[in-house]
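Inverse folding, one chain.
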């Protein structure tokens, strides 16, 4: 379903400083978030791994939005502390918002199924996709890098709550990620009024998304099940802007669904129509009528 993208600046992030982790190319959700934040008046720093930087596309974004780029492996605590220190120096003060848009599973990449996981790879999945969020928050808090009422958002997926074929050990990583948002959200909220939330986004066609088994079918199914259709990366960026803005100062420790209504659906007319088509009687090669 095609949706109209709102392309209007509301100046919601005027004067704010942010760090966006995880923009790889122009399909990345983080890429769109970075662009939208700058449109809304923020100054931002970008971060990704050395390897991602070598791929060269991030440079293009950095030039376009005039943002410094600071390399970091999100599993490395010292790297993360360095990002917060450098970003404060380069942007000229404490950080008002942070996006964690990082995920990777070697088991998914190498097609290991959930009942045949490689445990070293599982550790990597959890470290990159979830524990990195804890490291990020701990590093920021220890050097007091985030301003009062700052806002931190990580991206998650509904497979943390319900089982989705093919999502594999990323489901466990997303459950942990959401739990870290709650546990750290309590402490950081109590002490510094810093808000921590996760956005549970529709399946989206990105480099990470393409790694998931049968992503096209999953996207089509989610789209047909959702009254508003799948949320795009651009729409996710709009939602992030609201969470980074001062309009959501009492929202914290939540998993917020940004999925066109998918998470509260059981069966939709569009999905039923599609399913009925597949179940229509057909003639087999011997002329026998087969009923779905
Ligand atoms: N695409 C989807 O369908 C979808 C749906 C819901 C949630 N999400 C989540 O959105 C986030 C962003 O993914 P995306 O879909 O934009 O794909 P993407 O591939 O563009 O982004 C993933 C990013 O993670 C970075 N990364 C991987 N290992 C890292 C490490 N060790 N240190 C630092 N960065 C590292 C990659 O370089 C890349 O920039 C992920 O958390 C993903 O799980 C995606």
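Residues assigned per position:
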């Amino acid at each position: 379903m095609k949706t109209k993208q709102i392309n209007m600046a509301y100046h919601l992030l005027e004067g704010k400083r942010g760090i966006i982790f995880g923009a790889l190319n122009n399909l990345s959700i983080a890429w769109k978030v970075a662009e939208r934040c700058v449109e809304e008046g923020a100054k931002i720093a970008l971060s990704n791994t050395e390897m991602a930087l070598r791929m060269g596309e991030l440079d293009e974004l950095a030039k376009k939005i005039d943002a410094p780029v600071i390399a970091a492996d999100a599993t490395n605590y010292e790297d993360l502390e360095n990002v917060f220190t450098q970003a404060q120096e380069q942007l000229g003060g404490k950080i008002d918002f942070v996006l964690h848009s990082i995920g990777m599973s070697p088991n998914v990449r190498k097609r290991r199924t959930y009942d045949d996981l490689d445990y070293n790879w599982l550790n990597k999945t959890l470290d990159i996709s979830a524990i990195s969020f804890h490291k990020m928050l701990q590093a920021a808090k220890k050097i007091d890098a985030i301003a009062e009422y700052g806002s931190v958002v990580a991206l998650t997926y509904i497979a943390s709550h319900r089982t989705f074929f093919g999502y594999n050990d990323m489901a466990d990583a997303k459950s942990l990620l959401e739990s870290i948002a709650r546990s750290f959200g309590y402490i950081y909220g109590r002490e510094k009024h810093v808000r921590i939330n996760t956005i549970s986004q529709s399946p989206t066609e990105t480099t990470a998304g393409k790694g998931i088994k049968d992503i096209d079918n999953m996207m089509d199914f989610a789209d047909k099940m959702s009254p508003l259709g799948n949320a795009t990366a651009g729409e996710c960026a709009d939602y992030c802007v609201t969470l980074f803005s001062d309009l959501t100062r009492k929202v914290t420790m939540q998993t917020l669904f940004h999925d066109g209504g998918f998470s509260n659906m059981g069966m939709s007319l569009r999905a039923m129509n599609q399913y009925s088509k597949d179940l229509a009687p057909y003639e087999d090669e011997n002329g026998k009528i087969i009923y779905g």
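The first helix runs from residue 29 to 39. The beta strands are 17-21, 43-48, 69-71, 95-100, 146-156, 195-201, 255-258, 282-283, 289-290.
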